[in-house]
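quick one, 118 residues, struct below
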Amino acid sequence: MATTAFPTRDDFAAMLDESLGGADGGFEGRVVKGTVTAIENDLAVIDIGLKSEGRVPLREFAMPGQKADIKVGDEVEVYVDRVENANGETMLSRDRARREAAWDRLEEEFNKESASKA
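---
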């Protein structure tokens, strides 16, 4: 990566992009697995391997009218809205992760149906 003993800004930027999954934004707009590290008030604190953890409302882990069945140490899938907001927090969504998974299943079924008709 660095061609000299002292890395340049470009070298640092390239290393940062690589650590975040590439120059294309890496994590943003993707569903990733994370680990619940704490439950605070009505929020689950989730570590997805970035410099800061994200917080997701517990209601996003529960069916309507039920209590969330989630605990510290659980592995969950979340959608990364933003790697960092104005407060330096990672913006995560469990609801969007569920919608993405449902959309993927729908596309899969559609492709199977299309292939069987061809």
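The chain has one domain: 26-117.
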